């Protein structure tokens, strides 16, 4: 799994947006999706899944 914005992989915690993108916690978390600009929510991915 990797962040769709910064491509970070190791040692990161991830969230999945309601529009389907994966973002790490280091990338901005409020406002529209930084990938597609859709209004969306972020849902944390459990560590054992990442």
TrEMBL record:
GO terms for molecular function: SUMO transferase activity; zinc ion binding. Residues 2-37 form the RING-type domain. The keyword Signal does not apply. Coiled coil: none annotated. GO terms for cellular component: synaptonemal complex. It comes from the Eukaryota. InterPro entries: Zip3/RNF212-like, Znf_RING. Keywords: Meiosis, Metal-binding, Zinc, Zinc-finger. GO terms for biological process: homologous chromosome pairing at meiosis; protein sumoylation; reciprocal meiotic recombination. PANTHER family: RING FINGER PROTEIN 212B (PTHR22663:SF29), RING FINGER PROTEIN NARYA-RELATED (PTHR22663). This is R212B protein. The lineage of its organism: Eukaryota, Metazoa, Chordata, Craniata, Vertebrata.
């Amino acid at each position: 799994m990797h962040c769709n914005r910064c491509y970070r992989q190791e040692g990161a915690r991830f969230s999945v947006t309601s529009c389907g993108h994966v973002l790490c916690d280091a990338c901005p978390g409020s406002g529209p999706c930084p990938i597609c600009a859709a209004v969306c929510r972020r849902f944390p991915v459990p560590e054992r899944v990442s």
